[in-house]
Amino acid sequence: MKLNKLRLIGNSLIVLAVMGSLWLIYPFIKEEWRYRFGQTQEVTNSYRLIIPAIKVQAPVIAGVDPFNQIEYRQALTQGIAQAKGTALPGEMGTQYLFAHSSDNPWQLTRYNTAFYRLPKLKMGDEIDINYQGQTYAYQVREIKTVKPWEVKYLTESQTNQLILQTCTPIGTDWNRLLVFADPV
């Protein structure tokens, strides 16, 4: 009798662990499924980012303070954030966009994991930005991983370029993945 009770408890714990793991990774499985077999949903915002190679299409929220956690966390639930003080499309200078690659499973939306597949980009891939009725095309030039405190790319660059940023490895904030793209 006691052995059966221990087996029941052990089996229950195993089932709970498997169900908990599936609950945690379900959003990533769903995103991969959408990427491999699904259609990209059309975003009709006047400022949006489109990356055909990884099927990203998401609205961009302009003028977000990258050093104000409350402000940028709120913006990232609605889309990709454009760092306050950096160039807008069509302006000279660095345009700096950032987004999550993951979030807590209970907080995931279609937009706050927009950069989940960013590590799959390759040199030469196309990135388009639609802004106020115009399309601005970019081509990936470089991809690098930096530490979180390396903010010189955000604060010092006067180059006419686009930088996309997300945390890496997925599910952590240990490093930042930066994708540099030049206007075409």
Number of helices: 3
The share of residues in extended strands comes to: 25-35%
CATH topology of the largest domain: Sortase, Chain: A
Number of domains: 2
Tell me the series of helices and strands, N- to C-terminal. Answer: HEEHEEEEHEE
Q: What structural class do helix, strand and pairing data support? A: alpha+beta
Give unreliable regions as ranges: none
CA-atom Rg in angstroms: 19 Å
Main β-sheet, spatial strand arrangement: 1-2-3-4-7-8-6-5
CATH architecture of the largest domain: Beta Barrel
What does this structure look like?
By secondary structure, this protein is an alpha+beta fold. It contains three helices and eight strands; from the N terminus they run H-E-E-H-E-E-E-E-H-E-E. The protein has an eight-stranded mixed beta barrel. The model has no long low-confidence stretch (mean pLDDT 84).
Entry keywords:
184 residues; alpha+beta; Sortase, Chain: A; 8-stranded mixed β-barrel; 3 helices; 26% helix; elongated
